[in-house]
Amino acid sequence: MKKILLFVIFIQVIINFVSAQSGKPDIPLVRLYFHEKIDSTQKLIEKFDGTTDNSFKPTDNEELNNRINDALTVQVDNLQNTIEESKLSDNNDKIRYLRGLNECLQRYLNGFRYQTIKSATIVEVVSGFKNCMSLDEKKESVYTEIRTHSYDAGDILVNSYAFNDNEGINDSKDYLLLKVCSDHPEKMMMVLSQHPDISFADSLIIVAAHKRPDDLYTYAAAYNKLADRIKNNPDSLVQLIVHVSKMNEGRMYFPFLDNLYSHKISFDDVEAALRNDAKYYSLLVKTEIDYADRVRRRDTPLSMQALQSKLADKAKEIYVNVINGLHESPDNVRFKKIENLSPEELYYLAVMTEDEIYTSSYTHGVYPFIWKQMHTTKGGDSLLMRVRFDHFRKWIKMAANYNTLDDFLKRMDRGNAEVLMKAFVNGLEKSPTLEDAVDVADSYASINDKAIHDLILNQVQYNLHQSQQNGNKREADIYNILNTLFLSIDSSNHIDVAATLGIPPVYFMPNKLMRDDSGKIIIEQYFYGDKDGNNIFNAFLSNFRNANWRMTSNDKWVVVSSTKGVPIKIYSNRPLDDETSKDQEAQDALNDYLSQNNLNPAMVIHRGHSYYLTATLDQLAESAKLVLLGSCGGYQSLNKVLQTCPTAQIISSRQTGSGTINGPMINIIVEQLRLGKDLNWPALWKVIGNQVSHKEYFDDYVPPYKNLGAVFIMAYKKEQMNQED
Questions:
Q1: Buried b (16+ CB within 10 A) or exposed e, 306-323
Q2: Any idea what the Cα angle at residue 75 is, between residues 73 and 79, rounded to 5°?
Q3: How far apart are CA 94 and CA 426, in angstroms?
Q4: Would you call 559 helix, strand, or coil by DSSP?
Q5: How far apart are CA 391 and CA 352, in angstroms?
Q6: Quick one: DSSP state of residue 335?
Q7: Which of 196, 454, 614, 704 has CB atoms 3.0–4.6 Å from 649's, for a disulfide?
Q8: Are 642 and 713 within 8 A, CB to CB?
């Protein structure tokens, strides 16, 4: 027994000696474990900045890094000392605070690790813990402190074991729930589903009915405690949503919620339209125009998102899928389905199906049919007035991309055209998404009228100046990026977009960036098994039958490998019969092979008609750094590419994609890569243009450095990341 006692005393002496040397107070053995847990979590967090320098510097901002590191190290260490030295806390309290502090650090680590919170949150958490602990020691409520913090920091603090029994903890949790519902309305119903008995649930349900009716509809149709609470809410709008949610075809009625609520339309009116697809689509269009007019007058109709979603679905289902599917039929057969639609109904076919409508469906059908129904060669401004300028930026973008913008602007007086294009670039910061700004960026490079070009640039620069004057950061960011992009198109301005905006290269693709860890460049091509697919496939093979390349194959795919220069492998599936999906089977087999052998394509090429493009994009490798969409209208699918490959450079056509362009283009690009050269797009584009036989088709192709919408998204995301840090 004496030996054990002597051993304990010896250990305590050692601990006291170490504490004295480090400036820390004496730590009894009973609490040493909790200190060690905190120290261990500190070290874990330090490692997550990717360095092993015993400090935590997760951002590119040195000043912010110093504050974050000081909070994690110095301030946490000081907190541990404060807990030990406290005269207001007994042993159990000190253990509770130490345990709670470690829980806060662990919660921060998880949030930072999975990028659900900002790195600087640790500064708030540590200072907040110190202040909450001071209040708790004096038996005072922590509610006043929690209210001063962001939701993320507050959520970490109120869920800490340290303050479980504080008298203000329940009020603090309720406050944070209200805060997240206010700051993030899209989370309101999720919060209610997790806390259906919260005291202010009925009030939030009414708010949700007016602000998030689509979400309330979904939850009202369930069978749980929250659904019961929704059904028992006496608010008239809530009861209307509950009624619609119980109907067999409730989703078909829901787009008209606002007009049903205000009695502008009856359930019988909607039911009558439901009996005929054309009448239902027409009612959707009329309602959309009505709602758009109200938005223009600063009103906010209920459930507009559901209306637009249903309008897009019906535009595709009833009309666009039909005229797309008849792409090989004569125009009088193909477009019979839309010949009696009004100009407004045709307008919405275009703007609601941007990613689905074929180039020819727009240029040969929807666009000319509008003017046929307008019975005039003018009327561009009249058309937009009819639809209350709803989605007019989308309309202008599509017209620019399909080379009909000049024609459209000529259908109105010059002065009206200038006013329209100024409106096109004004107020982009007011949109909750970046869609309008991306549409403006995408359109600029497609505009051929120099006067309109200059007008847009001048308006962007004016808006940039105004935003800097009034201190609107979002507005300034949007117009600064647009100004940089638009000026860069003129090479005499000598603007390096990548360096200026802090994004990957735009005007060139480094050869080394295309290579994998073994130094090889992997390219994947998707072919499809129709007649054209077989012809294009055979032409591709013929172009690579020379001493610089060798071929190997099996029954599903062919591999073309370089014999000299940079090692390149081009994997291409065989265009087997598409009617029995053999081409898809070949693609699946090739994808499996590449995946199993860790072969990650740096370049992906779509070799097929536009109606096959969706299949290619569904299989697009995340590793792709260069994507060539060789089909008609591939330019309309840039957003889909960027969803999978956010920094990819993309080549596409606004209108006609042609094998006479794709073949030479691929040959020239691949040869540059084989020779170890970077892809200098402005110079390379001139070379390709001089070698192709159909210049009119080539002019429709857009090189990576002119994909301004894609570049805008990259630049804006980069700017927001810098601000968050």
A1: bbbbbbbebbbebbbbbb
A2: 115
A3: 59
A4: strand
A5: 9
A6: T
A7: 704
A8: yes
* Contact (Cβ atoms closer than 8 angstroms) between residue 686 and residue 404: no
pTM: 0.69
pLDDT tens sequence across 105-150: 999 999 888 888 888 999 999 999 999 999 999 999 999 999 999 9
pLDDT in tens, 52-105: 778 888 887 888 889 999 999 999 999 999 999 988 889 999 999 999 999 999
CA angle at residue 612 from 610 to 615, to 5 degrees? 130
Query: What percent of the chain is modeled with pLDDT above 70?
Result: 94
3-state DSSP helix/strand/coil percent for the chain, to nearest 5? 65, 5, 30
User: CA 646, CA 95: separation in Å to the nearest integer?
Assistant: 47
Reduce the DSSP state of residue 629 to 3 states and report it. strand
Count of residues making up the chain: 725
Do 407 and 364 contact (CB within 8 A), yes or no? no
How many helices (H) and strands (E) are present in the chain, helices listed first? 40, 10
d(CA 724, CA 649): 26
H/E element, 367:
helix 367-374
Q: How far apart are CA 271 and CA 251, in angstroms?
A: 12
Residues 158/128, Cβ–Cβ less than 8 Å = no
Which residue type does 318 have?
I
Contacts of 665 (CB under 8 A, 6+ apart): 628, 651, 688, 692, 701
Q: Is 42 left (phi over 0), alpha (psi -120 to 50) or beta?
A: alpha
Structure tokens at 9: 């005393």
Cβ atoms of residues 606 and 629 within 8 Å:
yes
Residue 725 · residue 60 · CB < 8 Å: yes
Q: H or E stretch including 701? A: strand 701-702
d(CA 531, CA 576): 10
Query: Looking at 34-38, 130-134, 183-187, which range is the least confident one?
Result: 183-187
Confidence tier at 16 by pLDDT (50, 70, 90): very low
Find how far residue 494's CA is from the centre of its chain: 30
Mean pLDDT of 443-448: 77
38, 514, 561, 672, 720 from 676: Cα distances, Å: 52, 10, 15, 6, 35
